Amino acid sequence: MPVDISAVENKASKQLPLKGEIFRKLTHIFAIVIPGGYYVLELSKSQALAIMIPVTLLMIVIDVGRLRGWAIWRFFRRIASPMIRQTETHGDFTGATYILTAACLTIALFSKPIAVASLAFIIVGDPAAALVGMRFGRHRFKSKSFEGSFAFLVACVLVALAAPSLELTVGLAGAVVATVTEAVSFRVDDNTTVPLVCGLVMTLLMIISNGG
User: pTM for this one?
Assistant: First the structure.
């Protein structure tokens, strides 16, 4: 069977050595403070955005500085360089920029229960999928694996079960949508697409369940 060289190269460009990938995913999990803080601190939408927008803008400046060789990048290079993927080195923004931007949009667009769950889906699910997929992934499609996607789904179901103030059926539907969205791999980074797509679906389901 012929090997799809472009698919192999694409997969390689999106992954780091195991140590670097683990460190990257642990950093990714730390982002749980965003939905967690939004809920636990009982922040309003405007208060949460007042915190998140400046942080996101700073991350965008750092990312642009990295891509353009600005001096600001020197302060972050030693810590961040081991977590930078090849695609990000050659012109893409980092996952941190995408997840922070997605957090701002998700908080702005959706109710608090849906925003919290949507962000938690990608923050918890993505590391589960990546680490399980790298270690146990045997049945592959594109750059993903069925094992990784199953791990993503399990993680999202656990989030749905724990999600505060969210109907369980809506949360479980959101978990499935999040998993499918992550697996499909749109051209846009899944840190952005997952919370926005599943947030929209859960919002529509909430409207339907409440009688329009």
Answer: 0.81
